């Protein structure tokens, strides 16, 4: 299990507000916007990282944060370069429910400009975010299967509201993922910072290709 829950302090209490991915025994990758409020970077002591627990109502392995590294070119208005690293205060012992994810190397992020769906275009996200646009956060880790699409197709969807360049990776919910109510299974508020994972058939392992950042609608 590579997913990390980010518990962020609000009025003296810690609440799950974002997700992340364990990428080493001291580091969690997440979205920069999760760690910026009102234009100011959060202090490390305002964030707790919980590992190894599907159900947030149960006790997990909680880690304090020593340092927060936000990508220097992150843009808080457009969410460009929406990446950050959390350095944990102690070493993570890998075990059955706690293990790091392998990060994709440059050139392995599978951008496509074809409508033909292949296995390499399928990605998976997971998080404890809202189960609908106006719903509550989930206590249980949920996942959804998405389809990677080209920047061209993505830009057509957003039109001129935001620029989709090669630094962004877009994924959409397949039509077959519609729920009984006609909604799609997708990321929602609270899932930001969580992983986009794809399966490498050559290396026969899952690897991290993206970080959940923003979307048009949710769940």
Automatic annotation (TrEMBL):
GO terms for biological process: proteolysis. The keyword Transport does not apply. Residues 1-219 form the Peptidase S1 domain. InterPro entries: Peptidase_S1_PA, Peptidase_S1_PA_chymotrypsin, Peptidase_S1A, Trypsin_dom, TRYPSIN_HIS, TRYPSIN_SER. This is Peptidase S1 domain-containing protein. It comes from Medioppia subpectinata. Pfam families: Trypsin. SUPFAM superfamilies: Trypsin-like serine proteases (SSF50494). Keywords: Disulfide bond, Hydrolase, Protease, Serine protease. GO terms for molecular function: serine-type endopeptidase activity.
